Amino acid sequence: MYPLNLLVCTVCVLSFHSSAASFYDNPEQDPLPSGPDAAEELHRKWDTDWGFSGLSTFAHLKHVRCLSERDVPFDIGLIGAPFDTAVTYRPGARFGPRAIRAASARQTPSFAFNHRRGLNPYLSSYTILDCGDIPVSPFDNALALRQMSEAFLELGSRTPALLQGNKPKPKLLTLGGDHSVALPALRALNKVHGGPVAVLHFDSHLDTWNPAKYTSSAWESAQSHFNHGSMFWIASNEGLILNGSSAHAGLRTRLTGNSWKDYDDDDRQGFLRISSDDIDDMGTKGIIDAIIERIGLETPTYLSIDIDVIDPGLCPGTGTPEPGGWTSRELIRIIRGLEDLNVVGADIVEVAPAYDGIGEQTALTAAQLGFEIMTNWVGRGLRRMESSTEANTEPKDEL
Question: Quick one: pLDDT at residue 152?
């Protein structure tokens, strides 16, 4: 005879084993979807990702090779410009688009409600696509400039999915790449919209330098003028930038020579200068107010964010780091406060993941900035649609 307590324990173990085994048993599978609702059922089951699964597109957005597929309309397109052979110091930003996309992985469309704005840009009425990368030549900068100029013009000339106004245009968010990619973007905007735009430039550096200051006169060449510190100088001389309506923010760069000549050149190009130190006295709201006063709310504006505007202690993954910058929180707060600006295109550049920390903090910040820019675009667009509906008028074209 076995003791009673042993029998009870044996029954308990057998019961636990039976229930535990049933958890791991292969359950009877559902029949494969069929009939008119099959597509919807497949979508419900499989068209989703965790942050760590799926292909690496920005925020798990649909990927379309927009440059070669004209029949797929979009309102906002993310386009990578993996180009970094116009830098003056550390290369590596060609890997920026890939790093930013990977860092955006937790921004799944089903988990992207922006609490400060009260909307989810990815689930709005706007069609947002990841358009892939421009296949930029790493060997020939003149060819690369032509490729990027043609690509931005091609995408910027498309008809958007959501028609607004009498001359609707899609918006492009460029993931760089070094900062020289802003020049072909401005050239394309000028052709698409038929005129110059203001530039809102977040950076530790001026980027309005005369390219002759970079090299000895003995070795100067026309192609050397195209670099990531002179693209706004070139754009200004080509008439692409609205003189008197543009602004730098976050500056703390050293200047060339032994005088203020760099500032004299910058003044001639019509930029307001807001230094990194100014935030101590003005606060983020003061910075926001100064930018809006300078640019206005209806002026078509190109937003250009060099990630080195943030202090390298927080965002080390960049090519020309400058100590004494803003925090990521400060920059995000400023971007959020600029929703009312008429931003017609934007870039996030100079993310060089080879110099980033193991936590990918630079790429994570860039990905968050992309999310905030798209939230601003969608929020401003929806608000204008609501206003035009109430007034029973067509939404005013943004340019």
Answer: 97
